[in-house]
Amino acid sequence: MKRVLIVKVTSLGDIVQALPVVADIKRAFPGVQVDWAADEAFAEVVHWSENVDRVLCAPLRRFKKARRWADFKSIWASIAELRAYRYDFILDIQGVYKSAIIAFLARSSRRIGYLAPDLGERGAAFAYTGRFGPRPKCNAWHGMRISAGEALGYEIEGPAVFNLRLPEPASLPFESNGAPVAAFFHATSKDDKKWPVGHWVAIGRELAQRGFRVVLPWGSEGERLEAEQIASQLPGATVLPKMSVTEIAQMIDACSLVVGTDTGFVHLAHALQKRTVMIFVATPPSHYGIESPYRSISIGDGQSVPPISAALEAIDYVHTEAHDVTVQHGSTDV
């Protein structure tokens, strides 16, 4: 085996959690080149992986929104780059039309995708010459590792390996003054995934009493207003400026603790080996959660609002000095 293409186009959290598939393939087939096809909006995240050899990207999401000629030309040019090499295998671990089209356009006689019940869009099946087995009975992230291993004929070994290396930041958007910093990712893509503002304030006050400084990132105007509402009730809290994906990642890497809802940046915090608490309100943690002993934990049942006490217990679990362990950015649990 000389060359494999992974197709995982979106979104941030899903791409982050899929990166260990590359480490698995490289362990099983020393010397293999593994390329990755992603939407341009998330390509920088794949570039941070020390395991990915070539990142292929196109502005698919932006073209869908704006239909600009420049974006169309970029997509057209990316097809030539996609077809520059012939692949021994193409693994589409997304399972939607756009990922299937990428798999179909790339040069390979072995294009593997999900079975019909596991596809995000049933029509994506046209692109595949082979199928993964039935979706494993485990969380989505470990399931991707198992499916890839079954397709290529190797066994999964050990915890997930991310091997992320961020560019050095020119500066950070906060001054810690020697205090530990906790980042609150309060914003969500859907309102039903939100944790109440009062709950954020309560855990923020407790962390402030423990000597933490709380920082609040945001992406939209509504999220900024909510961040300001939380910060106005917390001593020493800082609402951060608008930041790029890379700048947010660098900010996360400088924090001692990350608490947030089921969002891509909280998955990234987990992959960066930060002490992380992920709060689930409307989605099942058993399928999408994070977990690593004394470092990352998911709370909630996906059907109700987790209480403040559960979040504080989780913070104690991941940030208790008695269980402090030295970790590298190389490996982590699911």
Automatic annotation (TrEMBL):
<keyword id="KW-0808">Transferase</keyword>
<dbReference type="InterPro" id="IPR002201">
    <property type="entry name" value="Glyco_trans_9"/>
</dbReference>
<dbReference type="GO" id="GO:0005886">
    <property type="term" value="C:plasma membrane"/>
</dbReference>
<dbReference type="GO" id="GO:0005829">
    <property type="term" value="C:cytosol"/>
</dbReference>
<comment type="pathway">
    <text>Bacterial outer membrane biogenesis; LPS core biosynthesis.</text>
</comment>
<keyword id="KW-0328">Glycosyltransferase</keyword>
<dbReference type="InterPro" id="IPR011908">
    <property type="entry name" value="LipoPS_heptosylTferase-I"/>
</dbReference>
<keyword id="KW-0448">Lipopolysaccharide biosynthesis</keyword>
<dbReference type="Pfam" id="PF01075">
    <property type="entry name" value="Glyco_transf_9"/>
</dbReference>
<dbReference type="InterPro" id="IPR051199">
    <property type="entry name" value="LPS_LOS_Heptosyltrfase"/>
</dbReference>
<comment type="similarity">
    <text>Belongs to the glycosyltransferase 9 family.</text>
</comment>
<keyword id="KW-0472">Membrane</keyword>
<keyword id="KW-1003">Cell membrane</keyword>
<protein>
    <recommendedName>
        <fullName>Lipopolysaccharide heptosyltransferase 1</fullName>
        <ecNumber>2.4.99.23</ecNumber>
    </recommendedName>
</protein>
<dbReference type="GO" id="GO:0008713">
    <property type="term" value="F:ADP-heptose-lipopolysaccharide heptosyltransferase activity"/>
</dbReference>
<keyword id="KW-0997">Cell inner membrane</keyword>
<dbReference type="GO" id="GO:0009244">
    <property type="term" value="P:lipopolysaccharide core region biosynthetic process"/>
</dbReference>
